[in-house]
Amino acid sequence: MDIFLDYLKVFAVGGLVCLIGQILINKTQMTSARILVLYMLVGVVLEVSGAFEYMKEFAGSGVTIPIMGFGSNLAKGALEGAKTNGFLGAVTGGLSSVAAGLTTVIVCGFVFGLIAKSRSKKI
Amino acid sequence: MLERKEYQDYVSQNAPRSPMTRTLIAAFIVGGLICCIGEGIGDIIKLIFKEMSDKDVAIWESCIMIFLGSLFTALGLYDKLGHYAGGGSIIPITGFANSVISPAMEYNREGVFYGICAKMFTVAGPIIVFGVVASFLVGFIGYFAM
Amino acid sequence: MRTIKLKRPVYIKSGFTIVGPKEGDGNFGDCYDIVLNDDIWCEKSYEKCECKMHRDAITGAIKKAGLQREDIDILMGGDLLNELSPTSLAARNFPTAFLGLYNACSTFGEAMLVASMLIDAGFAKNITCSTSSHYSSAERQYRFPLELGNQRPPTAQWTVTGAGCTVLSSEMPSQMNERVYEDDIIAIDENMNIDEKTLEKYKKSIDKQKKVINISKSNILDGNYGKENNDYMRVNSHCAVVTGGTLGRVIDLGIDDEANMGAAMAPAACDTILTHFKESGLTPGDYDGIFTGDLGRFGRDTLKYLLSKEGITLPGYYMDTGASYYTPEQKTFQGGSGAGCVNTVFNSYILKKLQRGEYKRILVVPTGALLNKDTPLQQETIPGIAHAFTVESKAF
After folding, report:
1. ipTM reported for the complex, 2 dp
2. Has residue B14 been placed in a domain?
C-alpha cells in the first residue's frame, strides 16, 4: 500500500509540473527549448532556496525526472564544490555533477544520429 | 483597410487557441506516467544493487531515462507522443534527450562532421549554456557567501 | 496602375502535378497526375526529393503539352528553400534559359504574370511556370527538426508536399492532352547531368521508383485510363487563357507570429483584390470562381472580414485552396500552405474545370508571407504579398 501511495505522489506531482508547462505553452506559444530552459532555471532557484530537498523527499522522481532535477543537480554540485574545493570547486562542481547525464545524451545523440534518419510527421 | 493597431487586436482576439482541457489532461497523464516510469527504474536498480547509494541510483535513473528518450526518438515515436502530450513529454528529461537527438537525426544528411556534430545542440544548446552559467553564478556567489 | 490587361491571348497548354501521400488523401486527391506513396521517392534527402519532383513536374508538363524540351524558351520557377536550390538543381536538366523567382508561397502567381507578359510582348513562345514545396524540407529550414516532440500551434499550416508546372504558350493547345507514361517521368536521358556512377545507381533504382507511384490515385498510368475524368482520355471543350492580373504590393500590418501566417497574408490579399476590382472595373459577380492561395481557415475568415469592411462580400463559391486542401481528419489545423499549394490545385482541379468550360472567368490570388528563419528573431514583423491573375475559358 505504501508503494502505491509513493507512486501516486510521483504521478500527481510530475503530472502537475507538466500541466503548468502545458498552460504556459497554450497561453504564450513558447517553444520547447524555452520551456526547458525556464524549468531548469526554476530547478536552480528551488535548489538554492532549499525547497527542492523537501520536494524530492515528498515526490521523488516526480520532481527529479522533469528537467528541474537537472537544474537542481547543477546548483547543488556548484555549492558542494565551493564548500569542499574552494573556488575551483565552485567552477567545476556544477558540470561534474551532471557529467553522467550529459555524456549519455551526447553519446546517444552521436550513435542514433549515425544509424537513424528523421521521417516525415504522420499525424 | 484597417489600421495596424485595429488589425492586430482583431487577430489576437479571433485567432484559434489550443483546446485547454484536452491538452492539459494529456500533459498531466503523460507527464505523470513518465515520472512514474523513472521512479520504477530507480526502484528496480535499488532492488538489484542493494548497496548502491541514493545519489548513484538517481544518476543511473536519469541516464536510463535519457537513453529511453533517445531510443524512442530514433524509432520515430517521440514526436507523435509530443504532438499528443505537449508539455507532458517536453518537460521530463526524456524531452531534453529528444531535443538533442532530433537535430542529430535531422542533419545527418549533411555528414558526420558538419551535420551531426555541429548541429546536435541547435535546439538544446540554450539549456546547456543557461545551466552552466547559472551553476557558475551559484557556485561563485556561494563561495564568497561562505 | 498595377493591373495588367494582356493584348494577345496567352494559352495554358498543360498543367502537371506531383504530390505526396498526405496530399493524395486530401480533398483534391483524385485530380493529381502523380500521387506518391512516400515522400522521399528513393532519394537520400527530402531536398533531393523535392528537386526530383520539381524536375519531373516540368518534364511531365512539357510532354503533356505535346512539346519537346527544346521548344521551351524560358523556365520560370521557385520554391521555399534557401537560394531556390530545388528549382535551380532541377533546371540543370533542361537546355533552356532559366529565371528563378521568389515570392514565398505566391511565387506561382508571380511566375504566371511575368511569363504571360513576356509571351504577350512577343519575347517568348513557350514558358513553363513551376513551383514546389516539401513539408519535410520546409519544416527543417523554417521550424524545427522533424523528430522534435513539440506541439504545433492551432494557427499552424501544413506545408504541401507537391510540385506543379504550367506550360504557357502563344499557340492554342490541342483538344486532347498528350499521354504521359511513367517511363516519361522515370527515364534516363542525356540531359540528366549526372556522372557514370550515379547513373548506374539510378538505373538500378528505376523499378523501385516506379513502385513509389500510387497507381490507383495517379492519372498517368496505362491501367488507369478508365478512371472517371481522366486527363488523357477527355476531349476538352474549352481552352484556358490567361487574360491579365494585378501585381501585388508588400503589405505589413505588424503581425509578428510566424506560426500565424494566414493573418500576415490576409491584408495583402485584401489589398490586391481591392486594387484589382478598382482598376479593372469588374465586381466579384463578373467571376464564377475566386481562389486565394494559402491563407488557411483563419486567414480566409480574416480576408472576408477585411473585405466586408470595404463593402465587398465574397460570393459563396470563393475558395481558399490552402483551407480546402486537406480534410479536417488530417489534423493540419489551418490547412495547407507553401509554394506547391495553390499551384497543385490550379494545375489539377481548377484547370480541369476550365477545360471543361465549367468556369468562364476566374481570379486566382496566390499569397505569400515574406520571412526567413532569422527575421522574427530580429524582431521584424512579417509582411505579406499577393498577386492576382485572371484566367478565362474559351470554346474551341
Report:
1. 0.93
2. no
